[in-house]
Amino acid sequence: MTGKRIRAALAAAAAVCALLFVMPMASASAAPTDTTPRAACTYPDWVAGKWYVAGDIVRYTDGKYYRAEHDNPGYDPTISTWYWDPYDCGSGGQNPAGFVVSEAQFNQMFPNRNSFYTYQGLTAALSAYPGFANTGSDTVKKQEAAAFLANVSHETGGLVYIVEQNQANYPHYCDWNQPYGCPAGQAAYYGRGPIQLSWNFNYKAAGDALGIDLLNNPYLVERDAAVSWKTALWYWNTQTGPGTMTPHNAMVNQRGFGETIRSINGSIECNGGNPGQVQSRIDSYQRFVQILGTTPGSNLGC
């Protein structure tokens, strides 16, 4: 099984290595950290003129909560209703019961998954990006969930593999040009998790965004299921990779599943780079949307 590491624009020219995974050793387990979804009504106050992205939740001056359905430069939620929707904070908002993928469907998608990749870990991670699979129509929500999980399935052999197997690659993922260096050790930033987080600068960026010190403790990504899922959601919702948009925006703006492949692996698979790998992702996506009871939409390839 070949998985692909996350590549920031900084690493676009880096040599591409074939990545394989292995299960983490039983002795590598650690107490879970930061796995509890945040409280329902702790979102920040809305600020006029501040840039918001789809999925952001704010408390308006009327005391009510609103979620950005589209990126906007701080429009008034009570006026610019195309950009904002009321958010029922009292019901807990994004929570396992509201996720468009049930545990039974998740198990159907991944019948042979490693026990590390728990459904509870995934749903605990959703609070980090409440717009994920929760933006637009029910069809769009299900399509985004299916697209994310299809790419994850491809990267991990059906949620079987967790970390990169070829240990010879491990020292390559340390960019000493970064001012913070590699405090966990030169060989500590190898690929981990559902969308193969790698490189010290990606661990730093993801950790900063999530409020978790992954630069100094990258091992959390292979030891804590919620943290592992959060890093995948971080990439999906905030990074364009070698593409032109985030995978989240590709799905909610109906640019098609193919654009999510481009954002994850670019020309390595797209534009004829590896049509077999593209088709493998498409096959998983089509199977998953069928499980969720919806349609795949258009523009499946890249």
UniProtKB/TrEMBL annotation:
<feature type="domain" description="Chitin-binding type-3">
    <location>
        <begin position="43"/>
        <end position="87"/>
    </location>
</feature>
<feature type="signal peptide">
    <location>
        <begin position="1"/>
        <end position="30"/>
    </location>
</feature>
<keyword id="KW-0611">Plant defense</keyword>
<protein>
    <submittedName>
        <fullName>Glycoside hydrolase family 19 protein</fullName>
    </submittedName>
</protein>
<dbReference type="GO" id="GO:0016787">
    <property type="term" value="F:hydrolase activity"/>
</dbReference>
<keyword id="KW-0732">Signal</keyword>
<dbReference type="Pfam" id="PF00182">
    <property type="entry name" value="Glyco_hydro_19"/>
</dbReference>
<keyword id="KW-0378">Hydrolase</keyword>
<dbReference type="InterPro" id="IPR016283">
    <property type="entry name" value="Glyco_hydro_19"/>
</dbReference>
<dbReference type="InterPro" id="IPR003610">
    <property type="entry name" value="CBM5/12"/>
</dbReference>
<keyword id="KW-1015">Disulfide bond</keyword>
<dbReference type="InterPro" id="IPR000726">
    <property type="entry name" value="Glyco_hydro_19_cat"/>
</dbReference>
<dbReference type="InterPro" id="IPR023346">
    <property type="entry name" value="Lysozyme-like_dom_sf"/>
</dbReference>
